[in-house]
Structure to design on (548 residues):
């Protein structure tokens, strides 16, 4: 088992090197910062994570967010935002929000992931084409137009190197799966560029020599104004780190039949992000592809992820000086494959066969990610998904009178109930199907107002009401007040124990009367008939008492 963990860890570290370098450069950071992140975050999550197989480090999902944060606030701003994000993740884990993170709607996840993939592809196109774009505009259209304009200066050598990288990454795994195609592509392209002296820009040409020493701690200068400004970025980093880490943990569970600790994973990711940026790294999260590679290569315990981090240290110290020889077009080719895999285009296409509300959420999140920013996309996507779900839930909640032939068919036994009980005209039974919450409360009250004349007894049947909120209780109170004005007695039937507790706590039962709440319709109908007889007797006595 130890040997399998050792082999898996070494394999993952080999896979991690090109990805860490590529993601760091695409994010606007230095190449070595990607390696620092993979080492520090990988080490901490291996020691404290909630999943036995999780491999943490820089990922493609963070590229847009890191890039925009550095662009707005500089690297000091990114450090402060990530420190704050780490604290948020730790607090979420301590307060057991791990389960809630899984409730992010699927169309939102696919929407922003596909948007990120498109941004990642566009962002590395200059290196793919060998263009000398010193700086790119912030918005998508301007960036695209600039690249299109500069494409007349495309370097065929860069395109050849990037294309060869993609070809190797596609073909190599068909023959040898244990050794990553990305690393093979790096070896081949470095040899080609060096041996034939091809005019292709390398890491050294852009960044100079990179540090091959382990980083020291760097504390940012805390400025209150900057702290406040980076809060939205911090929230987005925390959400993205939490979502992707838990998705990765779920994938690992599916592959191994184990169960992860969501809250423990959030805490570990929070600690990992704090230490990552303090040691000159960038934000990190659980990496789905590297975690899957870890499992496929025989990992059984967190030792494999620990070996991955330690072996990356050796690579940095021993082979770090050769990293500068890697062509940027090679990393662009690697990122093209990553962007394709991130795009989730099959799931994106499949969602178009889903209900229209899911399509609306998907496209809204996708276009906001591309044309605005990830923070806005996630916030609007979740809010829109929630509103559309509430609207759908309100439409599925139905209310009707059992004696109405148009509606009694909604409930299988509603008409039978009416016929068997021989309910007199003075009694109306009103059925509610679905949760009685704020979105359905108004419809509930409006349907009740359609009754032509006030009955002597109104039974509100709640057997199919799983839950009720403050708006639903308020609607019941309004119905009770109206019933008293109309001299109608209000009864409730089908009230479950859970529903009764809610009504008791709200004070509604005290207002209505405990003797007017029943667990079954039969008991409510018996009581209603008694009330009708009492009222009939009172009316007769009143007539007899009237002087002739």
């Amino acid at each position: 088992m130890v040997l399998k963990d050792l082999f898996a860890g070494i394999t993952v570290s080999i896979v991690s090197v090109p990805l860490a370098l590529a993601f760091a450069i695409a994010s606007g950071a230095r190449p070595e910062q990607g390696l620092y992140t993979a080492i520090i975050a990988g080490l901490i999550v291996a020691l404290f994570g909630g999943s036995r197989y999780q491999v943490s480090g820089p990922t493609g999902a963070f590229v847009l967010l890191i890039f925009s944060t550095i662009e707005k606030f500089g690297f000091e701003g990114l450090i402060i935002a990530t420190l704050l994000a780490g604290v948020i993740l730790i607090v979420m884990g301590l307060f057991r929000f791990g389960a809630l993170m899984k409730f992010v709607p699927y169309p939102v996840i696919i929407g922003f992931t596909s948007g990120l993939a498109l941004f990642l592809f566009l962002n590395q196109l200059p290196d793919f084409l060998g263009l000398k774009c010193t700086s790119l505009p912030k918005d998508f259209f301007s960036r695209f137009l600039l690249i299109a304009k500069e494409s007349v200066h495309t370097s065929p050598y860069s395109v050849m190197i990037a294309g060869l990288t993609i070809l190797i990454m596609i073909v190599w795994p068909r023959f040898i799966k244990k050794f990553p195609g990305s690393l093979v592509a790096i070896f081949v392209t470095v040899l080609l560029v060096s041996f034939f002296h091809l005019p292709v820009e390398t890491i050294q040409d852009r960044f100079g020599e990179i540090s091959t020493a382990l980083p020291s701690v760097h504390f940012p200068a805390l400025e209150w104004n900057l702290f406040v400004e980076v809060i939205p970025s911090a929230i987005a980093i925390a959400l993205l780190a939490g979502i992707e880490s838990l998705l990765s943990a779920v994938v690992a569970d599916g592959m191994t039949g184990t169960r992860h600790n969501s809250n423990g994973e959030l805490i570990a990711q929070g600690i990992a992000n704090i230490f990552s940026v303090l040691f000159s790294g960038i934000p990190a999260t659980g990496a789905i592809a590297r975690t899957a590679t870890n499992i496929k290569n025989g990992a059984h315990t967190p030792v494999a992820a620990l070996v991955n981090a330690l072996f990356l240290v050796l690579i940095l110290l021993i082979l770090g000086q050769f990293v500068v020889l890697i062509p940027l077009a090679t990393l662009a080719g690697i990122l093209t494959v990553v962007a394709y895999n991130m795009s989730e285009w099959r799931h994106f296409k499949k969602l178009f066969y889903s209900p229209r509300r899911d399509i609306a959420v998907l496209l809204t999140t996708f276009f906001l990610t591309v044309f605005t920013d990830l923070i806005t996309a996630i916030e609007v996507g979740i809010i829109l998904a929630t509103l559309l779900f509430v609207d759908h839930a309100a439409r599925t909640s139905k209310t009707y009178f059992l004696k109405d032939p148009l509606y009694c068919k909604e409930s299988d036994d509603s008409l039978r109930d009416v016929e068997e009980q021989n309910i007199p005209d003075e009694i109306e039974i009103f059925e509610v199907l679905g949760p009685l919450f704020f979105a359905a409360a108004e419809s509930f009250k409006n349907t009740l107002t359609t009754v032509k004349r006030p009955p002597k007894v109104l039974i509100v049947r709640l057997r199919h009401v799983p839950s009720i909120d403050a708006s639903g209780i308020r609607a019941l109170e309004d119905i009770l007040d109206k019933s008293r004005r109309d001299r109608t007695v209000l009864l409730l039937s089908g009230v479950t124990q859970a529903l009764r507790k809610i009504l008791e706590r709200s004070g509604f039962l005290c207002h209505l009367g405990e003797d007017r709440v029943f667990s079954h319709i039969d008991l409510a109908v018996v009581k209603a008939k008694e009330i009708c007889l009492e009222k009939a007797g009172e009316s007769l006595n009143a007539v007899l008492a009237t002087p002739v």
